[in-house]
Automatic annotation (TrEMBL):
Pfam families: ABC_tran. Residues 10-239 form the ABC transporter domain. SUPFAM superfamilies: P-loop containing nucleoside triphosphate hydrolases. One of its GO terms (cellular component) is plasma membrane. It comes from Aeromicrobium flavum. Keywords: Antibiotic resistance, ATP-binding, Cell membrane, Membrane, Nucleotide-binding, Translocase, Transport. Gene3D superfamilies: P-loop containing nucleotide triphosphate hydrolases. This is ABC transporter ATP-binding protein. One of its GO terms (molecular function) is ATP hydrolysis activity. It comes from the Bacteria. CDD domains: ABC_DR_subfamily_A.
Amino acid sequence: MPSTTSVPAVEVRDLVMHYGRGDGQVRAVDGLSLQVAPGTVTAILGPNGAGKTTTIETCEGFRRPQSGQVRVLGLDPVGDAEELRPRVGVMLQSGGAWLGVRAGEMLRHMASLYAHPMPVEPLVERLGMTSFARTTYRRLSGGQKQRLSLAMAIVGRPELVFLDEPTAGLDPQSRRATWDLVDELRRHGVTTVLTTHYMDEAQQLSDFVHIIDAGRVIASGTPTELVADGAQNTIRLRTRAGLDTDSLAKELPAGATVAEPEPGHYVLTTGVDPAVLHRLTGWCAAHDVLVDSVLVEHQTLEDRFLELTGRELR
C-alpha cells in the first residue's frame, strides 16, 4: 500500500544551478520548487535544455545545490548519501554497467549489494532479458541496455526510484512491459519519479506531473487537471459547405469559434459536454442541416505541453 507519511518523498525548494562563469554563466535551474508525494508516479517533463536533467541529478545526489534545498525521503541526497543509497534506485541513461560484464552478471552483482533484493531470474524473465543475459554490456543494443538499467534500478527493492527515459529505444512490447512494471511498483507503495519525452507515457502512468521550462516549474497537476486547464476541446463537423458560421458560433457557449478550413469541413473550438452537443444538433435541425459526421477531439497532455513550452525546436 502507498505510504501515508506526510513527509514528501522528494522536496525541492528554490533550487538554483548554473554553469560557466562571468558573462557566459547560464542558469540551468532558476529558483525551482516542487514536491513528489510518497507512493505516487510523478513525471518531470520539459523540453531539451529546460533544466529537468540537472534537477533530477541534484535529487539523485550527483550534484550539490548551489542555492536552495533538496530533500529526498527527508534526507540530504549529498550529505546523507550513504543512508539513502539502499533506499533509492536510480536508472541512468549512461547505463552504469561495466563494458565487459555480462548483463546477467551485472544484475546479480547489483542484487548482492542489497539486504533483501528481488529474485534475479524472475526479474530477468519479466523484462525479457533472458536472450541477452550472457551478452557483454558493450554488445547490447540500446533497448537492451535500457532494460538492464531499469532492472538495476529496482532489483534492490527501493522505496523511491528515479527512472530517466525508461522506454527510450524500446519496442512496443518492451515498452508495455515497462509500463506494467511501473504500475506494479506503485501498487507496492514505491514512489517513482519519471522523466520522459513520450507524452502519452506520462499521461498513462503519472499520478502527478510537473512541467519545467527555463529552469522553473511552469505548471503542475494531475494529467487530467493539466489538460482541463489548457485550450478548449475541438469538434470536427462534416456537412454541406457554406454554413452561417457566425450564427452557429452564437448558439455555442461564449468564446466558441467556428471555422470552415475546407468546404463542408468545420472546426468548432469550445468546451465539449452533452449540453454543447445538444445545442449543436439543435442548431443543425433548425437550419435543415444534415450532418455527415461529428468528431470530438479532446486535448491531450502533449497538446498542453506544447501550449506551455512552445512548438519551436530547442
